[in-house]
Design brief:
Number of strands: 2
Shape: flat
Helix content: 40-55%
Strand content: 15-25%
Order of helices and strands: HEEH
Strand order of the largest sheet: 1-2
Radius of gyration: 16 Å
Largest sheet: 2 strands, antiparallel
Length: about 80
């Protein structure tokens, strides 16, 4: 089985995959929370906002369990490629 290693040549692929899977995981968890809330089972496991402020750029991210799950699958897909 071949594993992709993180090197300078494929760093952009890694960042794109990781960002994509984080977004999918975060949005999927948000959708699940809304479906459960409409069924009368409200849950809110969101932590946030987690922020990065470098004076020029400020990034805030609402972290939920889907974000962590998405990050895990992003790493797995990158290494499996």
């Amino acid at each position: 089985m071949r594993h992709m290693k993180l090197i300078k040549r494929n760093i952009s692929t890694f960042i794109i995959l990781l960002t994509l899977f984080i977004a999918i995981g975060t949005l999927s968890w948000e959708l699940l929370e809304r479906i459960l809330a409409s069924a009368g089972l409200p849950i809110d496991w969101t932590v946030g906002p987690v922020s990065l402020d470098v004076r020029v750029l400020k990034l805030e991210l609402m972290v939920n369990p889907g974000t962590i799950i998405g990050t895990f699958f992003g790493f797995r897909v990158f290494h499996a490629a």
